[in-house]
């Protein structure tokens, strides 16, 4: 039973990666479930064991993409020197946006969002909004813990800091993907984090 479940999860993951490939290259209307399934050696019927239809497949793909990002942030807070690793995470994320093949595919998909059915657009916006909110809450919890441990000063709002960090980062991501920032911009984020660190410091 366990082996069957593991195999099913592996197959679902392969279908999602195939969907990422196909949706990034074709419009939503021209991408077919038959092609997505065949891309990983499956039949269209086998795909229906995991996804209700093409709309469901796209929504599940967007959820997986968001979860992947959230897991990275969550893992940071389970290790020592979270501040340094949080800084590295945001800097590396900006660098990888235009260099990592998977991120390029995700960006291509998002540039086609106006072609999606309106209900799908609304659902994806909600998925992204909720994902950003969960990430913000993780940062807020981290700031609060730092205050309890005496590393961060107490007379500052963890919510305000988390909103600022999350909003600035995601805004910069949009600008980076739109080609509005110089290629070397990720290196400048050290200035931003130095300012946050200095402002938060309890000393």
**Measured on Cα atoms, how large is the radius of gyration?**
20 Å
| SS strand fraction | under 5%
> Total strand count, please?
0
Outline, from the CA principal axes?
Answer: elongated
Structural class: mainly alpha
Low-confidence sequence ranges: none
First-to-last CA distance: 56 Å
Count every helix, treating DSSP H or I runs of 4 or more residues as helices: 9
Q: Please bin the fraction of helical residues.
A: over 70%
Largest sheet: none
Order of helical and strand elements? HHHHHHHHH
Calculate the mean pLDDT score and round it: 88
Q: Please, what is the oligomeric state?
A: single chain
Task: Tag the structure with descriptive keywords.
203 residues; mainly alpha; 9 helices
Structure description:
With 203 residues, the chain is mainly alpha-helical. It is built from nine helices and no strands. The radius of gyration is 20 Å and the shape is elongated.
């Amino acid at each position: 039973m366990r082996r069957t479940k593991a195999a099913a999860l592996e197959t679902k993951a392969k279908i999602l990666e195939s969907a990422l490939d196909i949706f990034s290259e074709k419009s939503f209307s021209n991408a077919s479930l038959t092609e997505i399934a065949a891309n990983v050696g499956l039949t269209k019927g086998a795909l229906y064991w995991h996804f209700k239809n093409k709309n469901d497949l796209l929504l599940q793909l967007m959820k997986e993409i968001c979860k992947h990002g959230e897991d990275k942030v969550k893992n940071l807070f389970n290790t020592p020197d979270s501040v340094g690793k949080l800084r590295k995470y945001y800097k590396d994320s900006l660098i990888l946006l235009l260099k990592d093949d998977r991120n390029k595919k995700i960006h291509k998909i998002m540039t086609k969002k106006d072609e999606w059915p309106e209900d799908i657009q609304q659902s994806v916006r909600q998925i992204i909004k909720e994902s950003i909110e969960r990430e913000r809450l993780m940062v807020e919890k981290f700031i609060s813990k730092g205050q309890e441990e005496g590393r961060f000063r107490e007379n500052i709002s963890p919510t305000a800091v988390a909103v600022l960090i999350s909003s600035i980062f995601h805004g910069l991501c949009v600008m980076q993907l739109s080609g509005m920032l110089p290629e070397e911009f990720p290196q400048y984020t050290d200035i931003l984090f130095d300012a946050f660190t200095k402002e938060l410091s309890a000393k």
